Amino acid sequence: MTKSMRTSLALAAALLAGGCTMLEPKLPQANPAIPADWPLPPTATATATSAATDKPVADIGWRDFFTDPKLEALIARALDNNRDLRVAVLNVERARAQYNIQRADRFPSVSANAGLTRTGGNVTTPGDIYAASVDAAFELDLFGRVHSLSNAALQRYFAQEEARRSAQLALIAEIANAYLSLATDLESQRVAQATLDTQQQSYELIVKRHAAGAVSALDLAQARTTVETARADVARFAGLVATDLNALRLLVGAPIEQALLPQHFDPAVSGLAPLPAQLPSEVLLRRPDVLQAEHLLRGANANIGAARAAFFPSISLTGSIGTASNELSGLFDGGTRTWSFIPQINLPIFQGGRLTANLGVAQADRDIALAQYEKSIQSGFREVADALALSRTLADRRTAQQALLDAASEAHELSRARYERGVDSYLNLLDAQRSLYAAQQGLVTAQLAEQSNRVTLYKVLGGGWAEGAR
Question: Among 284, 320, 5, which residue's Cα sits nearest to residue 131?
């Protein structure tokens, strides 16, 4: 190795050892302007139904949250087969590969080359030249351009991973709601079928009494309306059950055995402990969608560093060592060695405003990402506050609906007894039957709304991405 080559390599090593100057600005402080604590109404959250809810909601795995083993089996199967979740996982793999591509620029690139150069015509030394060499190239990242681009790619990779977690959490909530909807429609269908059977028996009795002249044709027609109404509801709920089952199969992404389907509505599908009064709103920062927005903000901020570094000179080092010969058989003989060292400096002088505009775009992207990050925190706070507010009102609604059902049942029994004794008309009995049926269906609907809100509260608090263990 000659003295000049040693001097050049020493200069390159000194520049590399000096490190690079990072031009990435300080990450701006987010100001989502939300209260420090939740607007918790008295007894806002539901009573815990599972012993596994002793830890904070955001730390509860979905196996600990859901208490129905059938639902747990469906969720586990969906995490393996759901196509949307599979796409989210593949997007993470793609983002990781893109990061590795960008990260490769931080290391020297080395390649081996072999070739033949044949010359002819009016040249002094026509003939063939065989050459083989090992080439290396490296850019000295003095101002952090390559490092900033690599950091931006890394943050996009992290953001994609949070998007996968968010998709998994949404999938778990969708399956739970689909399962609850199917159970609710099955329960409503059962109520409608029981009402149809009862009304059919009453109608047959009224037909006989009408034939004997004990009741009028009006009573007979009114009795028939209750039968046909219940029959229509049975058919309607049968259609809803079929569509619910199709939706559940699509979410699971695989066939579902009959043994894994609900047979009735269970009001204890999930367990959620009351939130502690001191729970700060900073728990929102653990939500996957908020973390995704934060990583995108960090990536946009890193792009500003790369845009700033583009204003400064870039130094590239290219070197080659090999052999060259006029004969292929003598390619590796003594005296055929060749080498080259080509440092290059690129200094931007006039770009027509391209670099300034590129920096402006990067700064605008950073500001947009900051606003989106703050918006994600605000949206998360609103979702949690809504779920907390509904938890109290839905519990009161379910209690009132149960009391209404009890009163309607009692009124129906009294009305039927009075009709059979001839004290009241059949119209009063018909009103009592309709009120009882509406109260039964209303209770099922209220139970579904309360359970769905519990699942929503668990989701918006950011829990559920970890499987957990029993």
Answer: 320
